[in-house]
């Protein structure tokens, strides 16, 4: 008898039958080719973690100007589709499901990564208190260029094209990355959006860009194959706005319009908290959002089970535990100890199996 019957219970996500409620959180690991084509190694990584009911593959650039990491993957040219097909085939062969996280970093990039193209953002406000890895070493962020109103449909179209490529690559769905201070989050938050046009100035207007991206992606995938990720409490990438409560509860209530596959909330504080007030909780989102809710950040087997049993969440995503422990779900099933957390210095090693696909299963660690 498992200690987490709810977490390990199958669930229906739209028309998809998932084996359990454990989600592999999207995690950038910089294991793609230099031209952003996913590698066989990535297929091996995701296949190893296919015990998860749902895997969400890492942040994937929607355009050649949306590069924030060397060796990150892309979904902006046909060659990328060929690479991703190997990943989806590997996961499907193991009986699991996989969504692709489609992403534009907005201001969180650098000319040194984008062939000299300056980052774009809702407003010309620089990301402070952090640096970015470039081919020329770590650098301060640059002040981005504010997007012209007429340019915005072009960026929305990039998300749509990425969704088309994701579909061609046989992903079961896509997750729109609205979290962690990237372009969509930059539009949502008053800290980074000082626009005077229809995309800024009010909570409703700041939501407009995400709304347009969702509608564009819904031209490609049915609503029950599209998720949205938000980080209302996060400080990562220099985020946190005084009106975060009103903004994010509004966004969640508006997203009800679409009957999406899920809303993925980074509710926990384990990835950094902006301390602008009390953190928003899953219970608060449950009140305003009527679909499937995924929680994330700092969860353990025990706290995940509690959240699902109490009805606050339907599924829980695990990030760092999945990096170090490929057979996380099997360990939960049997009550086996997890591997030690991987040293963060090994998170972004370019294209190597070290700290990526070489972490032992319970059998290999002789725990089983
Ligand atoms: C190495 C690393 C890479 C990450 N990359 C992404 C990403 O590409 N997209 C995203 O939405 N979150 C990303 N995150 C955040 C994770 O999805 C997750 O929210 C975070 O690790 C907190 O969950 P945990 O406490 O279970 O690790 C990343 C986290 C880590 C540690």
Automatic annotation (TrEMBL):
One of its GO terms (cellular component) is cytosol. Pfam families: Oxidored_FMN. The keyword Oxidoreductase applies. Keywords: Oxidoreductase. It comes from the Bacteria. GO terms for molecular function: FMN binding; oxidoreductase activity, acting on the CH-CH group of donors, NAD or NADP as acceptor. InterPro entries: Aldolase_TIM (IPR013785), OxRdtase_FMN_N (IPR001155), Oye-like (IPR045247). Residues 6-338 form the NADH:flavin oxidoreductase/NADH oxidase N-terminal domain. Its cofactor is FMN. Belongs to the NADH:flavin oxidoreductase/NADH oxidase family. PANTHER family: NADH OXIDOREDUCTASE-RELATED, NADPH DEHYDROGENASE 2-RELATED. This is Alkene reductase. It comes from Pelagicoccus albus. The lineage of its organism: Bacteria, Pseudomonadati, Verrucomicrobiota, Opitutia, Puniceicoccales.
């Amino acid at each position: 008898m498992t200690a987490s019957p709810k977490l390990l219970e199958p669930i229906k996500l739209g028309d998809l039958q998932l084996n359990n409620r454990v989600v592999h959180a999207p995690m950038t690991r910089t294991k793609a080719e230099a031209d952003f084509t996913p590698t066989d190694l990535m297929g091996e990584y995701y296949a190893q973690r296919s015990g998860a009911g749902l895997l969400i593959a890492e942040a994937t650039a929607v355009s050649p100007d949306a590069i924030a990491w060397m060796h990150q993957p892309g979904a902006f040219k046909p060659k990328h589709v060929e690479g991703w097909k190997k990943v989806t085939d590997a996961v499907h062969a193991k009986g699991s499901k996989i969504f692709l996280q489609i992403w534009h970093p907005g201001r969180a990039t650098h000319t040194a990564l984008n062939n000299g193209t300056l980052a774009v953002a809702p407003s010309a406000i620089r990301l402070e208190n952090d640096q970015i890895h470039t081919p020329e070493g770590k650098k301060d962020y640059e002040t981005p260029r504010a997007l012209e109103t007429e340019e915005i449909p072009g960026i929305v179209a990039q998300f749509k094209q990425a969704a088309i490529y994701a579909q061609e690559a046989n992903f079961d769905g896509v997750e729109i990355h609205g979290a962690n201070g990237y372009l969509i989050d930059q539009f949502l938050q008053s800290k980074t959006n000082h626009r005077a046009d229809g995309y800024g100035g009010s909570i409703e207007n700041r939501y407009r860009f995400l709304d347009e991206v969702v509608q564009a992606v819904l031209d490609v995938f049915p609503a029950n194959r599209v998720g949205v990720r938000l980080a209302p409490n996060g400080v990562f990438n220099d985020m946190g706005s005084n009106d975060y409560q009103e903004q994010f509860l509004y966004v969640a209530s508006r997203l009800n319009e679409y009957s999406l596959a899920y809303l993925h909330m980074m509710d926990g504080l384990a990835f950094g908290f902006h301390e602008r007030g009390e953190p928003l909780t899953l219970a608060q989102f449950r009140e305003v959002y009527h679909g499937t809710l995924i929680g994330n950040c700092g969860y353990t087997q025990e706290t995940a089970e509690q959240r699902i049993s109490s009805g606050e969440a339907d599924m829980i995503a695990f990030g760092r535990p999945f990096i170090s422990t490929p057979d996380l779900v099997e360990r939960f099933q049997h009550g086996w100890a997890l591997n030690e957390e991987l040293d963060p210095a090994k998170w972004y090693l370019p294209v190597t199996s070290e700290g990526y696909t070489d972490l032992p299963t319970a059998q290999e660690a002789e725990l089983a």
